[in-house]
TrEMBL record:
The keyword Electron transport does not apply. Homodimer. PANTHER family: THIOREDOXIN REDUCTASE 1-RELATED-RELATED. Residues 6-281 form the FAD/NAD(P)-binding domain. Keywords: Flavoprotein, Oxidoreductase. GO terms for molecular function: oxidoreductase activity. It comes from the Bacteria. This is NAD(P)/FAD-dependent oxidoreductase. The keyword Flavoprotein applies. It comes from Paenibacillus xylanilyticus. Its cofactor is FAD. Gene3D superfamilies: FAD/NAD(P)-binding domain.
């Protein structure tokens, strides 16, 4: 693509697509580069998104793309961005399809992704009866008997959160240490069992958890699981370009979605630790307004 577009958006999840919608409506030339690996692809339904509660992730994207493509200045490329160079006003993104996209502003909306799950049987139930976020899927598992797989130091926090949905759950620290005596005492006081043995495997039928088998011979019968996955950013491109990132890899942005580099923005899971589709979409919209303001201010000065 020879033309220099106003904005290149890398990532076409809720954040990147909502940014594209706002920018398209603001008459800006936009290219969204997306390789279609959304973090919630494993799940059947997305919850908690007003007017879209229960929609499948693929249907969500289909409707979003249909609506965005009504704005002629927005183009969506199904490709992977592999390298980004340049500075404000003249960025270049190279893709695996050997395309080069040139743009004035950049938005990283690359999301986060799970590192491989290391508990045998977890992959089979992930997104069906094992979830990561009670705000997303707690309602579906309400009042059920649950296994909460969580590292020691976060156990009390998770117990408090989960207790809003059910009072029948067991904390499984999966062999990780870190619970203090005070924390164990607090969980005991609230009648929350804690099992420290490493997990051997998860037994399930057609994606539905039946029991969690522990190395010490104990079994926990349950119908659902919440667990804390290890997350990494969807792509290191922002970091490689020189954007400041946190220790966990999240892109550092200010309240206007600006990164530490001029002309470079980030939104959604990539730049936040509040993992919800509606939050990602709203951060994408915010980034779009911020980018559009800068583009308009520059055009205004040239008039
Ligand atoms: C199992 C599960 C269930 C969930 N359920 C819910 C729910 O019910 N409700 C809810 O609100 N939230 C839910 N979430 C969270 C929600 O999925 C995320 O918060 C949301 O998808 C984040 O949107 P995003 O646009 O930031 O990132 P994503 O949706 O992850 O999109 C990022 C996109 O960027 C693309 N990308 C990355 N790098 C590149 C590259 N180099 N080149 C091209 N493209 C690239 C990816 O392929 C992907 O398409 C769930 C998450 C999980 C894991």
């Amino acid at each position: 693509m020879e033309k220099t577009v106003d904005v290149i958006i890398i990532g076409g999840g809720p954040s990147g697509l909502n940014a594209a919608l706002v920018l398209g409506r603001a008459k800006k030339d936009v290219v969204v580069i997306d390789d279609g690996r959304p973090r919630n692809a494993v799940t059947r339904e997305t919850h908690g998104f007003l007017t879209r509660d229960g929609i499948s992730p693929s249907e969500f994207r289909k409707v979003a793309k249909q609506q965005i493509l009504a704005y002629p200045s927005v183009h969506i490329m199904e490709d992977t961005a592999t390298a980004v160079t340049g500075t404000e006003g003249s960025f270049e993104v190279t893709t695996t399809g050997n395309k080069i996209v040139k743009g004035r502003k950049l938005l990283f909306a690359v999301g986060k992704k799970d590192l491989p799950l290391d508990i045998p049987g977890l992959l089979e139930v992930y997104g069906k009866s094992a979830f990561v976020c009670p705000y997303c899927d707690g309602w579906e598992l309400r009042d059920q008997s649950l296994g909460i797989i969580v590292g020691g130091d976060k156990a009390v926090h998770m117990a408090k959160v989960i207790s809003g949905w059910t009072n029948r759950f067991t904390i499984l620290t999966n062999g990780t240490d870190g619970l203090t005596d005070e924390q164990r005492e607090e969980l005991k006081l609230h009648h929350v069992p804690v099992l420290d043995s490493p997990i051997r495997s998860i037994e399930s039928e057609e994606g539905m958890v039946r029991q969690i088998l522990l190395e010490d011979g104990n079994n926990v019968e349950c119908t659902g699981i919440f667990f804390a996955p290890k997350l990494v950013i969807g792509s290191d491109l922002a970091k490689n370009l020189g954007c400041e990132v946190t220790e966990s890899g999240t892109v550092v942005v200010n309240e206007f979605a600006k990164t530490s580099l001029p002309g470079v923005f980030s939104a959604g899971d990539a730049a936040s630790e509040m993992y919800q589709a509606i939050t990602a979409a709203s951060l994408g919209a915010l980034a779009a307004v911020s980018i559009n303001s800068e583009l308009n201010a520059k055009a205004w000065d040239k008039r």
